[in-house]
What we know:
Elements: H1 6-26, E1 30-31, E2 37-38, E3 51-54, E4 64-68, H2 73-81, E5 87-94, E6 106-114, H3 119-137, E7 147-150, H4 151-159, H5 169-178, H6 189-200, E8 209-215, E9 224-225, E10 231-239, E11 242-249, H7 254-270, H8 280-286, E12 293-298, H9 299-307, H10 320-323
Parallel strand pairs: 1-5, 7-8
Antiparallel strand pairs: 2-4, 3-4, 5-6, 6-12, 8-10, 9-10, 10-11, 11-12
Helix pairs in contact: 1-3, 2-8, 5-6, 7-8
Amino acid sequence: MSPRPRREIAAARARLYSLVRAELSGRGYAEVETPCLLPAPGMEPQITAFESKWRPEMPGPAARRLFLQTSPEYAMKRLLADGFGHVFQICKAFRNGEAAPRHNPEFTLLEFYRSPGGAEEIRRDLEALVHAAAAAFGAPALAEPVQTLSVREAFRSRLGIDLAACRDGAALAAAAAARGLPAASADRFDDVFFALFLSGIEPTLTSPVFLTEWPASMAALARILPGDPPVADRFELYAAGLELANGFGELNDAAEQRRRLLAEQDERRAAGRPAYPLDERFLEAVGRMPPSAGVAIGLDRLLMLLLGAERIDEVLLFPASAEWR
């Protein structure tokens, strides 16, 4: 397939952004803008932020370490705590080291939050948005009703593994080995889980589906749902084997959020990654948030599916793969 003309890409992107703004504004969401340059980025162990430094050349703040945002999540939740209600943002996000057919180190995120609200409500709004985009762009595969599938059921139906019976990495690896499945040679549950997920589950998620109820160890900023075992109130939207969105019923317990971030700092140090500072303004705000839910959508990936593109480079005017040669 020959590359699309750049003007066509630009026009499609502008059309998608206009549609997003119209759909979300029509559902009562207000558009906001938050800083890209931050004193503390996200702490997820698998993500590396781009780091810079503020060097004052006039009276004002002292020199300090700063980061390009990996997501606007912390700042947007501070707005929720201050009573902003339903909000959305289209913005650039940056993740160091991520360059592949489906990844660009600089990419475009849509994040939106309902406050008050829950994960089921935010999923309904997301599904309506995706269906509106599919209708506008003539993408029938994305117009299908979005099914809901729990992570536990995905492992049971695709791999024959009951996650509830695998409480640690060794047990999960043993269950995989018993079925002749490749798994990471690691002790960490999450490492074994993702080795199995990426090879045996993600490629099967071809029709639009919300994958829900992730293991509690993967909660990040989500609340925990009671059960045996407990699971995270987290979902991801998949279509054509591609992750499009990641959302949560949001945690609003400041003490628990601090505990998780400190644990992630330790995890980053153990992996040889930089341990980022805690965002104290965010932590203070978490305890004031009402019941809320939010989701982040990769707009470049959504545009890929709307246009039938196979690589993220095909929907970017200046992909890193070309610009950084």
